[in-house]
Amino acid sequence: MCGRYTLTSAPEAIRALFRYAEQPNFPPRYNIAPTQPIPIVRLVEGKREFALVRWGLLPSWVKDPKAFSLLINARGESVLDKPAFRAVMKYRRCLIPADGFYEWQKAGTRKRPFYVRAKDGGPLAFAGLWECWTGPNGEELETAAIVTTRASHALSPIHERMPVVVPPEAFNLWLDCKAVDAETAAALIAPARDDLLEAHEIAAAVNRVANDTPALIEPLENAEPEPSAKPKRLKKSTGQASLF
User: Fold this and answer.
1) 3-state class of 57 per DSSP?
2) Residues 68-105: pLDDT tens digits?
3) I need a surface site. Which of 35, 126, 150, 177 has the fewest CB within 10 A?
4) DSSP-derived 3-state class of residue 157
5) Quick check: helix, strand or coil at residue 94?
6) Handedness of CA 203, 31, 159, 118 (dihedral sign)
7) Cross-strand partners of 115
8) CA nearest 4: which of 73, 51, 68?
9) Closest alpha carbon to 26 in 40, 7, 41
10) Quick check: 158 and 200 in contact, CB under 8 A?
11) Cβ atoms within 10 A of the Cβ of 160, count?
12) Helix, strand or coil for residue 197?
């Protein structure tokens, strides 16, 4: 699965790759988590559109959102058949801009976090599905999920799943739901090429959603140790104000 990812490229670089008309300005994000707003790119009246939606797809037929499990990922093997994804795979496919993602490797009783990114350091496009849920009072909530597939040979030692990475030359094939049927678009649901991505182990600081700094993606040997959880003893007051 994909439960955390990054979007750190400059807005101009993302706009140049995805070719949407909007000019959004957004800060770098190093620890994007479910339920948070995420950018997507979709096709509206034949033009690519940038939009912010909630990460965690909510099917239109759900009556009570609070009683429905969060769908942050859509398994590529079942998107054509599963009720939660069948319609959106036909009519509401999108791309999700990213610069990398995190996966956790099982190591005995603990899990070791890894950061995965493009070898050339450039941004990526995850295959996504989006939906608009309408509540009983007319309120609307747009949500999205990342489509996943089996891991590539290079990444399989870390985790068995990975996001579907759509190459730029196939953007229109995934986005154009009117001209390209779901079965044809599903041909893009496959592991990334082994020469596209690289991975390195990182520190456990990524496990805390509140942490959102460039230090999270540093290789483990370069990472700063996490602050001790033990409370520090208060120093005797000197009567002077302090910023720390």
Assistant:
1) strand
2) 988 999 999 999 999 999 999 999 999 999 999 999 99
3) 35
4) coil
5) strand
6) negative
7) 102, 200
8) 73
9) 7
10) no
11) 12
12) strand
- Tell me the per-residue pLDDT of 107-156, one tens digit each, with 9 for 90 and over: 888 999 999 999 999 999 999 999 999 988 889 999 999 999 999 999 99
CATH number of the 5-100+122-194 domain = 3.90.1680.10
Domain parsing of the chain, residue ranges: 5-100+122-194
Residues with a catalytic annotation lie at: 2, 103
Residues in the chain, how many? Answer: 244
C-alpha atoms less than 13 angstroms from C-alpha of 159 in its C-beta half-sphere: 23
Single-letter code of the amino acid located at 85? F
Residue 45: both structure tokens together: 């009246």
Place of tokens 């190093």: 30
Q: Quick one: DSSP state of residue 217?
A: G
**Residue with structure tokens 């429905």?**
68
Query: Closest by alpha carbon to 132, among 207, 216, 232, 51?
Result: 51
Tokens representing residue 99 in the block: 């610069």
Map residue 126 onto helix, strand or coil.
Answer: strand
